[in-house]
Structure formats: structure tokens, C-alpha cells
Amino acid sequence: MIFRQLFEPETCTYTYLLGCERTRRAVLIDPVASEAEGYLPLLEDLKLCLIYTFETHVHADHITGSDLLRERLGSRSVVHREAGAPCADLLVSDGVLLQVGDLEFLARHIPGHTNGCLSFVMVDRVFTGDALLIGGCGRTDFQQGDAGRLYDSIHEKLFSLPPDTLVYPGHDYAGNTVSTIRQERTKNARLSGRTREDFIALMNGLDLPYPKYIDQAVPANQACGREPARQGG
Ligand SMILES: [Fe+2]
Fold it and tell me: Exposed site from 62, 70, 85, 183, fewest CB < 10 Å?
């Protein structure tokens, strides 16, 4: 398997490139529009054909590159059916298996940060988006956020994975790159050792600032990253 963890420094966003060595088919998880021009030579150097872009959710801090890549490379965008982005090519629900050459990704619905959050599970790793971060989790005070739902979905669908499963998050603000399910179960500052009620109280009391780019990013991402001038066209 070909694997690259790419980093967009302004919003500390991770984008993941995964490619099948045999078929040269590839997927980008959470591509960023401002970085999209850089993905093209990378795919070319690695002799990969981009089949899909997977969105873990409708992001509030950056604009997805999925529409741009769709236009340039013919890739298909994948989002959860409740994400509020009907412009996507595939609207998936919990339990859908996505195949890219020899690579298999199980889509799991992890609501709580947003209604339509997805994690993508492979044999040895999981891409958690903003639902589960290294040592933390996504906020639950915007975009249909619900702390109780997040607690339940993390415990039911992520913490139940084998302990050695690698955890690749959607962001990291401290330079961490990868964790494991075991590490998050035992050391996550928001989740470890907390009851559901404790977690809800903690999340509801965070008092975080209003997200800087949410008013631009959410409508753009609900249109798959399409620029306003091109929307509807
Ligand atoms: Fe998010």
C-alpha cells in the first residue's frame, strides 16, 4: 500500500493519500482546496489514478478540494448521507464498504461533532476525522454537535476496534501524527476515565471561541468546495 500523511499548516489539517500498488488506484481523505495543486504532481510522481475523495465531514475551518479534483481528475466525492452535501457523487451510510483497487475502507457513521461524520476503517488503521483526535475530540457546539452522541459513537464504533489499530486524525495542533485505539482509550484527556455525564458536562462547559472560517467554509463544503461563482452551474 502507498500511504502519505499530508499536512496543511494554516488549519493544521491532515489529508491522507492511499494507493493500491497493484492497480495504482488511489483515494484522498479530506483534501484541502488550497493544497489541491500540490496533489496533482504527487499523484503523477507516484503513478496513481485518483478514484475517490472521502470527506470525514463538512468542515468548518477549511474548504474541501473535492470539487476541484473532480473537475481536474474525474474523481468521485464521498460523504455521509446526512452531511448536508447532496452535490457529492456517493452519499454513504454506516457499514458501506468502499473498495479502491485492493484497499478496503469500511465507512462508519460517528455522529456528535457533526450529524454526518464518517470514520474510514482499514485492517490496521482508522481515519477518524474530527470525531476522535489525538488526546482530544472535535467540538460539539456547532453543526448539529451533540456531546452525548459523540461519546456513544466513539465508544461503540471506535473504542471497540482492536487496541493496536492506528488512529489517524483530521487535525493535530501539537505535531502529533498518529496514535492507537489503546492510547486514546487510556490517555485521551477528554474521554479516558469519564462517564457519559462527565463528558457532556466537560464539552458543554468548554466555552470555545466562534470558529473563524465557519461562515465561509460550511456553505462552500455543502457545495463540495465549489466556488460561489460556479455554484449552480
Ligand atoms: Fe470539523
Answer: 183
